[in-house]
Each structure stands twice: as C-alpha cells, then as structure tokens.
Inverse folding.
C-alpha cells in the first residue's frame, strides 16, 4: 500500500456497521432509522461501497434484518456489549483492514476511512480511532482495526470498549472541528427528530 494514497486499496478494507445494541434509549433499532426514506444502514453502505471490498451489518439475529438486503454478520453472544461486536468482526474472514461504524452516526463518510488509515500508516499502528479531547480519551467508534489484532485479544481486556482500544494500541486520530461534527452520536428518538429537522432546514 502507498502511504500517501487517498485511500487504502479497496480490496484491503471491509466496513462493518454495528447494529447489535439494545437501542433502549432510541426505542427501536437504530439500523432502521431513516434518512430520506432509506434505512441509515443502507445509506452508510452506499456511501462507503465504492471505496471498500465489502460492507456488512453486524447484528444479533440475522432474521430481523434480512429485509435490508445487506450482507449480515451475526454476533451470537446474547449479551449487549460493544466489545462483542468488535470481537465478532475481528474473528470473521475478510479483508485485512476492518472499519467499524456505529449505525447512529449518519454523517460519517469516506473521508473518515482516509483519516484513520493515514493515522495508522503514519504511526505504524494496527489501527486508529478518534480522540475528541484529552479528558474523554480514545473513542471506540468509529475505529479502524487490522485483522492481526485478533491474535492480541485477551480475556483480561474485559467488556469495556475504551479498554480494548487502549490494549490494542490503536493510534489516536485528532479530528478538527468540522470532522468532529460528522462523528455525532444520535442516541434517542428526540435527538433523531431534531437531527432530521436540522437537515430539512439546511
């Protein structure tokens, strides 16, 4: 791979949209939130597809999402924890690099892949994730992981995703203000309604 290329080679990257959370605060599956009449998971898939080898939706039960028409990767662990989704992605077959996205971040796009990949390349790390400020530390999503990190996983990493990105030694990407705005998590139905209203105004 060429370090100063805008993106890694498409064949080397898979995108995994995590939709296995309980969505308690939203009240229904975040993967089924709609942007302009289309499920946000499908919007994200279409946005990234030209730049990667594959886009998959990571879910708890495949039967609930087959109607979305996307490749599905099942996290068979009954417990709802982000680390189970990360582990499922790393243990699956597929491209060397795995970009993990949250299905409640509707504004992320291919520039994110470029930024995380360049950060990993520049530092020699096997992955990268955002650091929005020193107090909060590293953000587990979105994040870029190399498949070789599956050999590094240990039970003592526990069930806290922030611990996982630290133990995996993901390189911190420092986004600027405009980039931070694209990393907005939308966790509740009210917040989603406000987001849609702002989009209509702009």
């Amino acid at each position: 791979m060429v370090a100063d290329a805008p993106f890694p080679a498409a064949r080397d990257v898979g995108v995994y949209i995590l939709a296995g959370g309980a969505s308690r605060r939203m009240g229904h599956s975040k993967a089924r939130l709609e942007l302009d009449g289309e499920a946000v998971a499908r919007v994200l898939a279409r946005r990234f597809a030209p730049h990667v080898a594959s886009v998959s939706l990571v879910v708890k039960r495949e039967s609930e999402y087959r109607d979305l028409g996307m490749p599905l990767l099942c996290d068979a662990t009954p417990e709802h924890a982000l680390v189970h989704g990360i582990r499922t992605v790393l243990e699956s077959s597929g491209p060397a690099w795995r970009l993990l996205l949250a299905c409640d971040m509707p504004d992320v796009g291919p520039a994110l892949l470029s930024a995380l990949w360049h950060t990993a390349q520049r530092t020699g790390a096997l992955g990268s994730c955002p650091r929005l400020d020193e107090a909060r530390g590293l953000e587990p999503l979105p994040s870029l992981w190399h498949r070789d990190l599956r050999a590094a996983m240990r039970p003592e990493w526990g069930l806290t995703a922030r611990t996982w990105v630290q133990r995996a030694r993901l390189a911190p990407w420092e986004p600027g203000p405009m980039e931070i705005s694209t990393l907005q998590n939308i966790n509740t139905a009210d917040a989603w309604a406000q987001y849609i209203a702002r989009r209509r105004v702009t």
